[in-house]
Amino acid sequence: MNLIELKKLIKKTGAHARKTFSQNFLHNEYTLAKIAESIPQDSGFYIEIGGGLGSLTEFAVKKKLFPLKVIDIDDRMLEVLQQRFFQDAEIVKADGAKLDLSDQTGKKGVIFGNLPYQVSSPVVLNTCYQSSKLEGAVFLLQKEVAEKFCALPGARDFGPVAALIRKVGVAEYLFTVEPEDFYPAPKVHSAVVKIKYNDHNFEKAELKKFADAMRVLFSNRRKTLSNVFKINRLDPEILENFNYAKMRSEELSWEAILQIAEYIGRMK
Predict the structure, then answer these.
(1) What is the 3-state secondary structure (H, E, C) of the chain?
(2) CATH 3.30.450.20 matches 3-201
(3) Is residue 267 over pLDDT 90?
(4) Is the pTM of this model over 0.85?
(5) Tens of pLDDT, residues 222-236
(6) What is the pLDDT of residues 85-131, one digit of tens each?
(7) What angle is formed at CA 130 by the lines to CA 95 and CA 47, rounded to 5 degrees?
């Protein structure tokens, strides 16, 4: 759906972008096709988060990514999606940050979507928590956020979400998306990130506990770990035993991060 078609659909349905939901509709067909091509075929199921007016949904259907479920929280968008794709997809009102995959059995699936800035972290976290049921995920994010999610240990951008992703899989920064590819055009660039999840048996509660430990560990980046532990009222024993006390979180190796996370988990 190109820009002319998008504007016609908006005029016809009245389902315009809402600032409340930080909606920006992707209309560049080349970019949409590239995103669709990055989504693995022949997976057990597909869930699109934030279907909007169906620009990406259209390409998912063309690629025959079935069975397909499309979710959104905006009633007007859901009406449009239902009218356009009722024969090809299950259209559901749901919050991507609270999506429950417990009923999914059998072959692993894929989650994808264009995520607004303010919900990108909660959605990606929730997806990672349930990644034992997923083959992968493909998300369109604000560029700055995408870079943080793909950061490696030891980098300044590495933080809690990147750590959780690394715990369960591997994130890859695929390509940058220009503001002009959206309507209305945002003031920032976007990027597409692909996550390939490992085969693992981590329970949701276990991964949440790890994410909580990461929030503590990266809560005061400019402070030494000794001060971080004091602020969070944690016993600094592990820091003293392994000479981590004077280090900052961004200086830790992945092995050290896992070691400290396990320790914090026991303390909490």
Answers:
(1) CCHHHHHHHHHHHCCCCCHHHCCCEECCHHHHHHHHHCCCCCCCCEEEECCCCCHHHHHHHHCCCCCEEEEECCHHHHHHHHHHHCCCCEEEECCHHHCCCCCCCCCCEEEEEECCHHHHHHHHHHHHHCHHHEEEEEEEEEHHHHHHHCCCCCCCCCCHHHHHHHHHEEEEEEEEECHHHEECCCCCCEEEEEEEECCCCCCHHHHHHHHHHHHHHCCCCCCCHHHHHHHCCCCCHHHHHCCCCCCCHHHCCHHHHHHHHHHHHHHC
(2) no
(3) no
(4) yes
(5) 899 999 999 999 999
(6) 999 999 999 999 999 999 998 999 999 999 988 899 999 999 999 99
(7) 50
> Residues, the chain, total?
268
- Domain 205-267 is found in CATH 1.20.58.100: no
| Terminal Cα-to-Cα distance of the chain (whole angstroms) | 50
Domain ranges of the chain: 3-201, 205-267
Output the pLDDT for position 20. Answer: 64
Report phi then psi at 109, rounded to 5.
-115, -175
